[in-house]
Amino acid sequence: MRDLKTAVLTLLLTASLAAGCTGDDSEEDLDAKYQEGYDAGYGDAYDASYDGVAQHQYNEGWDDGWGVANTDSQAEIAEIQATVSGLEAASALMEDQRDSLLALLSDSQEFANQTIALAEAMNETIAGLHAMLGENATLVQQLQSDLAVQQGLVAQWQQTAEDNRADLTGADLSNGSLYFTLLTGADLTGADLNGTVLSAVIWNNTTCPDGTNSDNNGQTCANNL
Q: Which residues make Cβ contacts (< 8 Å) with residue 104, sequence separation at least 6?
């Protein structure tokens, strides 16, 4: 197309120069004619170069290029959309996994809280048991002390009873009254109890007049005089 324009311009320039050499026009007229011819020739050349065939080819080239570009773009868009879909699916899966982990974490935290509460309750129970053990130990010591005192008192009573044991061997208690008399540890060997009132007598380890022990006679000497 550029070669065609150059040829036309050269032709117009040659014709203008030839006309200037043979005519009688002035220099200004020649310049005006030259410009007019140049404009007309350039316009014809431009119109000739921009004909329907060139436009058609240009349009076909544009359409082909646009089609290729559009196809490539559509393929790239489809690939991007596929990537986006994959990312969305992966994101949804990760969200599900996150929710599952959060649920597990919540359950674990709840279990941990329950375990801590149980441990605290057990600690309180253990502390209470220790306190009770201490109190019981103190009580046991007190009871042991009291028992020692009681044992001492028993020993004293036994000694007193032994010291105060009634010796009624061969005594004449006939026709008397032993009503409500405590005869614990008394020795009545050979004693005379004929006609003696023996109601409510307390016989305890008493040696009866016949030498037997009241404990072996049904806690009495009434039948062993």
A: none
Rg (CA), the chain: 73
Residue 202 DSSP symbol: B
* Half-sphere exposure (Cβ direction) of 104: Cα atoms closer than 13 Å: 6
**Are the CB atoms for 4 and 48 separated by under 8 Å?**
yes
How would residue 189 be classed by pLDDT, with cut points 50, 70 and 90? Answer: very high
CA separation for the pair 100, 153 (Å, rounded): 77
For 34, the token pair is 């030259």
* Cβ(201)–Cβ(183) below 8 Å: yes
List b or e across 14-30, with b for residues whose CB sees 16 or more CB atoms inside 10 angstroms.
Answer: eebeeeeeeeeeeeeeb
**Which has the minimum average pLDDT: 81-85, 92-96, 162-166?**
162-166
